[in-house]
Amino acid sequence: MSFDVEAIRRQFPVLSQRPHGKRLAFLDSGATAQKPQAVIDAVTRFYDRDNSNVHRGVYDLAERATAAFEGARKKVARWIGAEPREVIFTRGTTEGVNLVAQSWGRAHVGAGDEILVTGMEHHSNIVPWQLLAAEKGAKLVVVPVDDSGQVHLADFERLIGPRTRIVAVTQVSNALGTVNPVKEIVALAHARGVPALVDGAQAVPHMKVDVRDLDADFYVFSGHKMFGPTGIGVLYGKARLLEAMPPWQGGGDMILSVSFSGTRFNTIPYKFEAGTPDAAGAVGLGAAIDWLEGLDRSAVEAHERDLLAYATARLSAVPGLRVIGTAPGKAAVISFVMEGVHPHDVGTILDAEGVAVRAGHHCAQPLMERFGVPATVRASMALYNTREDVDQLIQGLGRVREMFP
Amino acid sequence: MSDLTDLYQEVILDHGRKPRNFRPMPDATATAEGLNPLCGDHYQVFLKLDGDRIADVSFQGSGCAISKASASLMSAALKGKTAAEAEDLFQRFHKMVVEGDASQADGLGKLAVLKGVADFPTRVKCASLAWHALHSALRGEVQPATTE
Question: Is the pTM of this model over 0.90?
Answer without folding.
Answer: yes
